[in-house]
Design a protein that fits this description.
Layout: E1 2-6, E2 12-16, E3 28-36, H1 39-46, E4 62-69, E5 81-84, H2 94-97, E6 128-131, H3 134-137, E7 138-140, H4 147-150, H5 156-166, E8 175-179, H6 183-192, E9 199-204, H7 207-213, E10 220-223, H8 229-235, E11 242-247, H9 252-261, E12 262-270, H10 282-285, E13 291-294, H11 302-310, E14 320-324, H12 329-337, H13 339-342, E15 346-349
Parallel strand pairs: 8-9, 8-11, 9-10, 11-12, 12-13, 14-15
Antiparallel strand pairs: 1-2, 3-4, 3-6, 3-15, 4-5, 5-7
Helix pairs in contact: 5-6
Length: about 350
């Protein structure tokens, strides 16, 4: 089969590799219909994730059809169209039993790390993929959910919802600010509406992304390149700051922005993957009674979000801006890697 193979920092190739085989009774093999590229794949290609070995097939998002099942699989059958969660979880260890799938203790890859696709084991940017713990990590797709909608459930929608909205404890009437209007930030914007906030303020440097944020449910936008960006946000509140500040970029500056925006008693939910340490002005923050949360997506809400997507209750059809055939995946990487130039959000590869 053909697959997108990591060849070391800065190097990748679309090449012939052996087909995956069932290794455990809980595995299934899936023939991929669609996959996509995540900012994390770009991090890997930069060499930021040294655990990824040369020769690894990349990708942790995807939709496909089951072609083979392990001897222990009873809830999935050959021919089922499934969405693959970016986190693989056994569903049985002590962490999985409390919904902490991102820290599944079952030793595929490394015990305690649920994100293994395209990281510790071969991933989804391929014609076929072996799916471990398939009954807990693959979800049957209802008819009527398109690839462009379903693909968002592998990673970005659960990430924005679980780590941004749920951890940020958004509640009715809240003023929510989302710093970073990329795919993940916009997922937080879309899913925050489920809790009835009074305002959702999208903050970004890119006017094109801010323009798009409105159609995902942002009530207001602020360009953080403006010298008075903070005053603009405060003017949209009662003057004390936002109830929930969600960080969806992953750099020190934007985390600090979130700490500057939150009101006393409010919540800061960090989604961004940070590559360096960030200063925390605890001397100013301690007296504000704030809560800071952070984490790796669990995908434990995938099934719930899938129901909403199937009912078209979330405006998600606008995430995919570009589509490519599998054998044009190198072009897809070029477009996604230069998203600003191409006005790209999510690329669908099928
Ligand atoms: N916690 C998790 O489980 C998890 C899962 C998936 C992704 N992530 C992380 O979420 C983050 C966002 O992912 P993405 O795919 O949306 O990334 P992205 O790069 O597409 O989007 C980031 C956005 O931030 C904006 N930005 C950059 N600097 C800014 C600034 N100073 N002020 C305001 N906006 C600024 C950019 O213009 C861009 O629109 C990344 O760090 C990613 O690694 C975390
Ligand atoms: Zn991802
Ligand atoms: Zn587990």
């Amino acid at each position: 089969m053909k697959a997108l193979v990591y060849k070391g920092p800065g190097e990748k190739s679309w090449e012939e590799v052996p087909n995956p085989q069932i290794q455990q009774p809980t595995d299934v093999i899936v023939k991929m219909d669609a996959t996509t590229i995540c900012g994390t794949d770009l991090h890997i290609l930069k060499g930021d994730v040294p655990a990824v070995q040369v020769g690894r097939v990349l990708g942790h998002e995807g939709i496909g059809v089951v072609t083979e099942i392990g001897s222990g699989v009873t809830q999935l059958a050959v021919g089922d169209r499934v969405i693959l969660a970016c986190v693989s979880s056994c569903g049985r260890c002590t962490n999985c039993r409390i919904g902490l799938y991102s820290h599944c203790l079952n030793p595929e890859g490394i015990a305690g790390i649920g994100w293994i696709f395209g990281h510790m084991i071969d991933g989804t940017q391929a014609e076929y993929v072996r799916v471990p713990f398939a009954e807990n990590s693959a979800y049957k797709l209802p008819d009527g959910v398109t690839d462009a909608e379903g693909i968002l459930l592998s990673d970005i929608l659960p990430t924005g919802f679980e780590i941004g909205v749920q951890y940020g404890r958004v509640k009715p009437g809240d003023v929510v600010a989302v710093v970073g209007a990329g795919p993940v930030g916009l997922s937080a914007v879309v899913t925050s509406r489920l809790y009835g906030p009074s305002k959702v303020i999208a903050i970004d440097l890119d006017p094109a992304r801010l323009a798009r944020a409105k159609s995902f449910g942002a009530t207001d936008t602020v360009n953080s390149g403006d010298s008075d960006w903070k005053e603009q946000v405060f003017a949209l509140t009662d003057g004390s700051g936002v109830d929930v500040a969600i960080e969806a970029v992953g750099i020190p500056r934007t985390f600090t922005m979130a700490t500057e925006l939150v009101r006393p008693g409010g919540n800061i939910a960090n989604i961004g993957v940070h590559g360096e340490s960030v200063d925390l002005a605890l001397n100013e923050l301690w007296i504000k009674n704030i809560t800071i949360s952070t984490g790796l997506v669990n995908t434990n809400t995938l099934g719930m979000l899938l129901k909403l997507v199937a009912e078209h209750s979330l405006p998600v059809e606008q995430f995919v801006t570009h589509e490519f055939a599998f054998d044009k995946i190198m072009e897809a990487y070029d477009v996604f890697g230069n998203a600003g130039k191409h006005d790209a959000l999510k690329v669908l590869i099928h």
